[in-house]
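Human: You know discrete backbone vocabularies at least as well as I do. Show me how you would write down a chain together with its backbone fold. No explanation is needed for now; the record alone will do.

Assistant:
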Amino acid sequence: MGQYSMGDAIQKFLQGSRLKGDMQAMQLEVVWEKLMGKTIAKYTDRIKIVNRTLYITTNVAPLKQELQYQKETIKLRVNEALQSNEIKEVVIQ
């Protein structure tokens, strides 16, 4: 039987778990302001990851419009922050 570090064991567990998206969303919330800036972070209501899709929720119409134009940049920044290519799509709600 192989030996894993605690971090490796957790990563292996999360790969097959439905908790993976929730864990990544929590990681993302910690660095969201740094990635997107104070104004966007302030008016972002919710961040959720489901099936490799990042859902960003805001009730501010001009911000929704701005985020629509930045989808590709957001995807690149988030994947860099998560150190993976996990996010394939960004949906603004």
Q: What stands out?
A: The beta strands are 46-50, 53-57, 89-92. The chain has five helices and three strands. The first helix runs from residue 6 to 15. The longest strand covers residues 46-50.
